[in-house]
Amino acid sequence: MARTLVLLRHAKAEPEADLGDARRPLATKGRKQATALGPRLAEVTGTVDVALVSSALRTTETFKLVSQQLRVRTHEVRDELYEAGPRQVLAMLQELDAETATVLVVGHEPTMSHLAFLLHDTQDDLARQVSLGIPTAAACVIEVPTAWAELDRSTAHLTQLVRLAD
Question: How far apart are CA 86 and CA 70, in angstroms?
């Protein structure tokens, strides 16, 4: 069974305000980014079986706008994704049902790019790009040839970086 993992960094957020980092909303630019990214992700992934979304306001808003143009069967907002590092997100992925084909994770930097780099099986141009981090509203699309429970370092293949033109 072919599996696809999409690691999406949230769209552009407002600078930190008195409400704290977790309550930062999307900026006007971020709302436009997320709206434009939805159809691009739909072309790349088709239907998403499970979306795991950080509980931060900017990630939930990004997901809401992206999912207007992207079919998502089920989603979970998870508090632990807000501060999770690559290994913590990997552990969440390893717990997914084996029948899940396509997963979207909406999270934060540097976790999204570090996890993509960790999973990627080749040192190529895409690896170099993500090793430097990814911009807001960018998604790492990863082919996963193993069961989710077996996903680990260098066991998947980063096929593309979906990003919007500046």
Answer: 25
Inter-axis angle of helices 28-45 and 57-66, to 10 degrees? 50
What is the three-class DSSP state of 41?
helix
All domains of the chain, ordered by start, with CATH? 3-162 (3.40.50.1240)
Reported pTM: 0.97
Quote the Cα angle for 160-156-85, to 5°: 90
What's the rounded Cα separation, in Å, for the pair 108 and 101? 23
Q: Give residue 88's pLDDT.
A: 98
DSSP 3-state of 131 = helix
User: What are 129-155's pLDDT values in tens digits?
Assistant: 999 999 999 999 999 999 999 999 999
pLDDT reading at 165 higher than 80: no
Structural tokens at position 55: 């509980």
pLDDT digits (tens, 9 = 90+) for 32-42: 999 999 999 99
CB neighbour list of residue 10: distance below 8 Å, 6 or more residues apart: 26, 30, 54, 56, 58, 59, 61, 62, 106, 107, 108, 136, 137
